[in-house]
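subagent[fold] <- orchestrator: predict structure for attached chain, return tokens only, no commentary.
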Amino acid sequence: MSIEEIRALLNDIESDRVERTISTTNTDKFGQAICAFANDLPDHKQAGFLFLGVKDDGEVQGLDVTDELLKNVAAIRTDGNIQPQPSMTVEKVAMPEGDIVMIRVEPSVFPPVKYKGRIWIRIGPRKGVANEDDERILLEKRRTNVTAFDVSPCLNATIDDMDLQKFKHYFLPKAMTDDEIEEDRKEGRTVKHQLSSFGFFDMKYECPTNAGILFFAKNLRRFIPGAYIQYVRFAGKDRAGDIMTEHEFKGNLCTTLEELDTFVETTIANRRPIPVSSTREDPFVDYPYWATRELLMNAICHRDYTSNGPIQFYQYDDRIEIMNHGGLYGKANEQNFPKVNDYRNIVVAEAMKVLGFVNRHSRGVQRVQKELKANENGEAEYDFSYQTAVMVKEMKSPLGERALQEAIARGFVTENNDGKSQKQPKLSVHEEKQPQKQPNLSISEFPTMLTWNVYHAIKLNRKAKYSWLADNLGVSERTIQRAIDDLKELGYIKKEHSKIKGEWQLLK
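subagent[fold] -> orchestrator:
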């Protein structure tokens, strides 16, 4: 600010945006003034100013402004008495009459702001304690300014803290068509405008939103310490058992979602072929891939990211437990769950849908229960008794162990001295001469679980369209397109006749 602008503020003794004092030690007075400016009850949406070394009538008295004085004044923001902490600056200003201290306080995005537990506001040219009506207005301002944590600005982050390459080359191609991206380029839209259009950047505060940090931060836990998933494999059926392995998924969500997807498919599901006859093997899993993945994705989507605790993903000999911080949100409650859904993190939910990890059709839980029952895991058990957290329990399926014991009993598999099973290497002469049906393709013959699911969905519906496949498999049409391309390239399927009336032809 220029000297002329500062002089105009000093001389405007009727302004409710300015307070003056000649004191340098009355920290209570300073704290109350800072709190009142941060609350901005008149809703000026402009900064308030506290001047030290100036009389009430605007006359500059001047001070001996030292580094110690500036540090002491700046420390008022972080000494714990003002909550939540406001955005403010402290600087020395050289006026012709002498030096003064200028404290600039920005209106808070999170009113009401309290000093030592009391809400201070400006009432014309003076300050006072807020009454119930004042507090109600401030709370309404908070709800208007910030509807959810994920859309709130992450004020201590900058665009340099974001992995823009991940946004440009991973997220954007999934969210926009090539033509739309090219149109953006021709119109000269900056990456900030593109981020802002998806809720990842706040143009007003020139900083990423919390959702932007969640998806693209180079160092996520620097800004949101609890935003990670803690996986632990315990030996036995409770936490008293030894820890067999542990891992933290602590990258940004663009990275973590992909890692979890692969981890569930390759490690948690425990997919293995078991002979069910002399000529055929069937795949068995302890935990259905899609159902387990969906439970984890729901935890990530709906968790309370203001908590410093991680999502707990614990595996025992007989079950998996996922504990997620944040109870049921909004209109959802124990009586109407899972038929009624609400979103604590609307930007996170939409971004996960774009990336193909959730569908937002409010039927994920029903599909999870259906898959678990089909695999004889039993329905997932939800425990809402923790108040600030939700626990979901998924029991291990007995199908694989049962099939293995039957295979051992029928001689298709032998058991070694160490208790491990081993497939019999040869068929009998009688068995070799028996007519054989074309065996079903094993999951292991497909590059991913998704391509296997798409293949078998097409097997059930030869006229399946991308929209039908996406809806039934709970992924985006873009994800279905990639799976179809893989199946075509590998020679599993091809399309007959026209794209509109044609049917899929299975080549294997």
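orchestrator: received. Logging for downstream: The chain is about 35% helix and 20% strand. Residues 425-439 have pLDDT under 50 and may be disordered.
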